[in-house]
């Protein structure tokens, strides 16, 4: 998976704790990784799947 050009960000709600990072600036892909292991595995989602996941979290 080519992640060249990915802009990784961490939620402002995570404070100073370790968290996940999300790159949502890639066409047709939202990438998620562990901020403690930036060279480790990356999960990839379609934008619509990621949006559904985030919406469910907000409504939980």
What features would you describe in this structure?
By secondary structure, this protein is an alpha+beta fold. Helix content is 20%, strand content 32%. The chain has one helix at 47-58; strands spanning 9-10, 20-26, 29-34, 42-45. It has a four-stranded antiparallel β-sheet with strand order 1-2-3-4. A hairpin with a 2-residue loop joins strand 2 (20-26) and strand 3.
Instruction: Please give the alpha-carbon distance between the first and last residues.
Output: 31 Å
The SS-based structural class is: alpha+beta
What's the tally of helices? 1
Sum up the overall morphology in one term.
globular
Topology (elements, then pairings):
Layout: E1 9-10, E2 20-26, E3 29-34, E4 42-45, H1 47-58
Antiparallel strand pairs: 1-2, 2-3, 3-4
What is shown here, in short?
It is built from one helix and four strands; from the N terminus they run ββββα.
Which properties best describe this structure?
32% strand, single chain, 4 strands, globular, 60 residues
């Amino acid at each position: 998976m080519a992640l060249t050009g990915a802009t990784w960000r961490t939620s402002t709600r995570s404070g100073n704790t370790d968290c996940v990072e999300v790159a949502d600036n890639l066409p047709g892909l939202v990438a998620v990784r562990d901020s403690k292991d930036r060279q480790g595995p990356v999960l990839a989602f379609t934008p619509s799947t990621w949006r559904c996941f985030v919406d469910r979290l907000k409504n939980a």
